[in-house]
Amino acid sequence: MMETQAITLLELNRRVGSAIAVAPGLQGVWITAQTSDLRSSGGHCYMELLQKDERTGAPLAKCRACIWASTFARLGAAFYAATGTRLSSDMKIMAKVNANYHPVYGMSLVISDINPEYTVGDLARRRNEIIARLRADGVFDMNRSLPWPQLPVRVAIVSARGAAGYGDFMKHLHSNPQRLRFTTELFEATLQGERTVPSVVAALEAVAARDGEFDCVVLIRGGGAVSDLASFDDYTLAANVAQFPLPVIVGIGHERDITVLDYVANTRVKTPTAAAEALIARAGAAFDRLRATGDAILTLVRDRIAGQRQQLAYYQGSIPALARSILDRNRQRVGPEIPAAISAAVRNTFVRAADRLNSMGVLLDTLSPEATLRRGYSITRVDGHAVTDADALDEGTVITTTFAAGRVRKSVITSEN
Prior knowledge:
Elements lengths: L8 H14 L4 E15 L2 E9 L6 E9 L1 H15 L8 E11 L3 E9 L1 H21 L17 E6 L4 H11 L8 E6 L7 H13 L7 E5 L14 H8 L5 E4 L8 H5 L2 E2 L3 H63 L2 H31 L1 H6 L4 E4 L2 E2 L11 E5 L4 E5 L6
């Protein structure tokens, strides 16, 4: 039996390392991958590089990678200058690598250069994909098209309580030179790290539950790492802002830092202080409009009163002359024939009245007691009162009977009904 020749594992790993070190296709090669678990230590940068399935997101390849401190200072600064963000996890990068194999730690990649333009393109692509999805869902322009209240002074604020940006916003808003009064309420949220999206969404939902109490929402973030802005390029958060029932002001970065929220929010400003300025300007414009309207009303009333006074003065001077003119015209219309007609009418009226009086006199004479007595009737009285009932007379009562010619007095002997 032939004796088997064996080598140690260390020797095998050394051979692998040597083979990798001299293989032309494994040194100074450009690759594309996604960063994960990126961290810094001692000036060096460590991470894992991943390749995922585009459809399922399942990992297809994985390898440890590092950027030595002597290289990281230069690459990090160049990457930030080109992209406006720090190198961080969950970024797609194009890197120039050298394959390295360690007998204990296995294979790793040493990054010697990074092409930031690839990352810029990927960030833009991701942002464009989110924007396209929001447009397809029909929500992209919803918040941007909301009308502002006439006087937006009830403000809901989504921010971290201890953030410098929140303090700057409050100080600037409440110390405005026009002394405009705002009411504010803070809805606390985390605006950096992995908790950003669920925290901000929860704060927005709390505001939406009381939307009748506010005129607008301000989402502000001051300071912090620029890389944290990647959290705001998120579909879920952007959809919430786009569909929010109140106008949203976003101030979470600086002039060059743009996220999807800047596209869907009603108003985009650079800083928290600029957000306060935007509110002050809107409220100030509303008060200016109110003041202008009041001045216009006052001027209109004054002009109307002055006009009425002039018209009244005109009437006061015109009425006496007008009355005299009317009298003169009527005198001319009356002429000499009218008095004669009036006299004839008066005479006719008196004649008709006299005829009526004569007729009434004849009727009264016919109905008078004297006429009745002349027809043979008499009137019997007791103490001047006419007697109409014989039973009312007692024996011996003195009665007086009046005839057409004369009267008699006698005592009642007896009475019969």
